Amino acid sequence: MFSEFLQFLLTGITLGTTYALVGLGFSIIFNASNVINFAQGEFIMLGGMTTVFLVGAGLPLPLAIVLAVIATGLVGMALEKFAVEPAGNAEVVTLIIITIGASLFLRGLAQVLWGKGFFALQAFSGEEPINILGAIIVPQSLWVIGVSVVIMAVLWYFFSRTMLGRAILATSHNKVAAQLVGINTRFVLLMSFGLSAMLGAIAGIIIAPISLTSYDVGILLGLKGFAAAVLGGLGSGVGAIIGGLILGIAETMTAGYLSSDYKDAVPFIIMLLILFFLPRGLLGGRGTERV
Q1: Which stretches are transmembrane (predicted)?
Q2: 8 Å CB contact between 15 and 252
Q3: Tens digits of per-residue pLDDT, 23-46?
């Protein structure tokens, strides 16, 4: 009984840390621009698919991962530069529609380039199962959890110890005041999209050896990452992490003790309940706007 519970818990933490990374991407862009970037899921797809393509072209896995993360970051910056920035001070709804259009474009482009098939990425350090107190997990799950924890620590340092990180936080609190003290808010927004895209790419790469990847893998993962961000409080980094873990564990517990037919519905049911009873999420401190 305990080993079964531990099995579901470890699987849930693996999923939850992935959702947390995606949720952090949503929160970073929302903080910098008040925009909910519905193209975030496509960054997950681009990270995984680009890595598979580069490895297939003969590049070593570590180099392929680095290039895929950089390439996805550049795509995120291009999205901001050529789609969001020209919209200027358009309504939030308009900006959200722009990101939905960008999502459709990126997904269609991936389908043309790589087709509709599923692709497997090799595990980072073998596939020999590991026994932890009776629970069996694959080594890639430890990579997912470990990389996610390191990324979260790096983000904490970035936002609390670096000038660019503090500039992003200042812009999120008061854009006009940030401009008055000399912060280039356009550059901050550009960097926010690039950083968010790289987070999505990393999530897509580390989960690809477990769940495969395809041109449309970002749809569901992106929505669950959004649910994690909303659950924790849109704009709250810590909230996105907590929300991701709650959703991941709830999803696997539901699949394990009830039925896997319900697992994909659980994150959205929880998100709807939170929006009904706590519109700002568990840790959200900023106001929400009906759109």
Answers
A1: 6-31, 43-72, 92-110, 130-159, 187-213, 225-250, 265-283
A2: yes
A3: 888 888 887 777 788 888 899 999
